[in-house]
């Protein structure tokens, strides 16, 4: 009897100790935590259905042949200075400069359900279209044909973590946090930024290298300057 | 001799009379008769009014996919401002009138940045008044809602359906049918967000605040 009680107490104690470790959810660290691997591949899934907030989303079709015609040729553009993209998390705006010349200023949506990391980054990979998925429960999302994706990273947060600037077709609430960590942009705006930003676009997948380096991206919080 | 003298006298009087008559008639025709009009009060004096239409000021917002445009045309007509709202498809020449309203102040109605629903089915506009902001939702096709109304007034629907909260802002679309309504609990600083589901015209209280 005594031995049975002692065994029961030991079992309960073990369960109490082990359960929190087993049940701990892995934190959502990026915009596409479930699909980190697949989202680095070009994916066009026309006539597919997306899911956001557990609601079905109509996915716009993407015509890659149209994108190819916009591909720029290396060295044909006149550069007037270093390109730099600033993402202001306080004002929820993105400003893109070439030297001192403002190329674009537009509202964005940064992380609401997952944090958008602050710091200095560089665009590593540009994808014309891919699928992203992540979240769980009511927060689950699975979105094909995300257009004009620009993954960025630095020494602390590699581009493989999945943070990117990209187009958005499932919501229209720019100027307010609304993402899982990425920087959401209006598709018409991000299309222009994608063509402007380095590495200069070569086809539907462009990776930065020494010859074709990526544009710098600074993500900052105005209150902490 | 005396007959000749008599005839000359007669001819002189005829010529004198003719000249005098001509002078009198000429004077009568050319003189400005100020007796009548000078006595009239000023307000009866007809003054020509030339109406020059004021220029139309246009503001517009493209849909997120860039295929459509929502345009507001504002024109001053006398003391009022006429606001006309149109939707158009960029590949087509035609534009669809959605709504027209005249107002006294010039800056009341505006198109928010996030006006288009993600599927391009709806748009919303904002009307700022000294006491409260109104938000109206329209079909981009110009169609009416099921109750034959031209638009949905979110503010008045919110007052009818949700008690204890006051709308702070309507920011944009969380999904094709869902508008984000930020609100504050009355007699409290607690802020909450609702989804306004357009087809059902209902408000859904959320656990997340969309700041």
Mean pLDDT of chain B: 85
Flag low-confidence runs of chain B.
31-40
The CATH architecture category of chain B equals 7 Propeller
The average pLDDT score of chain A comes to 82
Number of helices, counting only DSSP H or I runs of 4 residues or more of chain B: 3
Helix and strand string of chain A, N-terminal first?
A: HEEHEEEEEEEHEE
Level of helix content of chain B?
10-25%
What structural class do helix, strand and pairing data of chain B support?
Answer: alpha+beta
Radius of gyration of chain B: 36 Å
Which class of chain A in CATH terms? Mainly Beta
Compressed to H and E, one letter per element, the order of chain B equals HHEEEEEEEEHEEEE
Low-confidence stretches of chain A: 19-30, 68-76
SS elements, strand count of chain B? 12
Q: What's the N-to-C terminus distance of chain B?
A: 124 Å
Number of strands of chain A: 11
């Amino acid at each position: 009897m005594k031995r049975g009680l002692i065994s029961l107490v030991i079992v309960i104690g073990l369960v109490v100790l082990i359960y929190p470790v087993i049940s701990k959810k892995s934190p959502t660290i990026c915009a596409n935590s479930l699909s980190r691997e697949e989202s680095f591949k070009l994916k066009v899934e026309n006539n597919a259905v997306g899911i956001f907030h557990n609601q079905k989303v109509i996915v716009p079709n993407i015509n890659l042949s149209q994108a190819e015609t916009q591909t720029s040729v290396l060295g044909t553009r006149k550069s007037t200075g270093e390109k730099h993209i600033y993402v202001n998390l306080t004002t929820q705006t993105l400003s893109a400069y070439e030297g001192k010349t403002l190329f674009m200023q537009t509202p964005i949506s940064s992380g609401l359900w997952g944090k958008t990391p602050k710091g200095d980054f560089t665009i590593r990979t540009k994808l014309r279209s891919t699928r992203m998925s992540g979240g769980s429960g009511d927060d689950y999302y699975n979105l094909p044909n995300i257009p004009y994706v620009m993954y960025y990273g630095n020494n602390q947060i590699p581009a493989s973590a999945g943070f990117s600037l990209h187009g958005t077709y499932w919501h229209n609430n720019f100027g307010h946090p609304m993402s899982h960590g990425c920087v959401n942009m209006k598709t018409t705006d991000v299309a222009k930024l994608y063509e402007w930003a380095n590495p200069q676009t070569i086809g539907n997948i462009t990776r930065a290298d020494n010859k074709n380096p990526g544009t710098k991206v600074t993500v900052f919080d105005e209150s902490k300057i | 001799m005396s007959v000749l003298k008599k005839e000359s006298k007669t001819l002189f009087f005829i010529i004198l009379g003719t000249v005098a008559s001509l002078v009198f008639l000429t004077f009568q025709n050319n003189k400005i008769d100020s007796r009548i009009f000078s006595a009239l009060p000023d307000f009866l004096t007809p003054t020509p009014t030339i109406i020059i239409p004021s220029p139309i000021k246009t503001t517009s917002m493209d849909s997120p996919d860039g295929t459509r445009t929502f345009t507001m045309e504002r024109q001053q007509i006398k003391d009022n401002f006429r606001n006309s709202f149109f939707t158009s498809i960029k590949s087509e020449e035609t534009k669809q009138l959605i709504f027209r309203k005249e107002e006294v102040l010039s800056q009341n109605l505006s198109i928010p940045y996030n006006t288009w629903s993600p599927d391009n089915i709806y748009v919303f506009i904002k009307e700022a008044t000294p006491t409260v902001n109104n938000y109206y939702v329209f079909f981009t096709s110009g169609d009416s809602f099921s109750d034959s109304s031209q638009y949905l007034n979110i503010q008045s629907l919110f007052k009818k359906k949700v008690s204890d909260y006051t709308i702070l802002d309507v920011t944009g679309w969380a999904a094709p049918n869902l508008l984000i309504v930020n609100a504050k609990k009355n007699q409290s600083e607690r802020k909450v967000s609702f989804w306004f589901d357009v087809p059902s015209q209902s408000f859904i209280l959320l656990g997340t605040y969309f700041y």
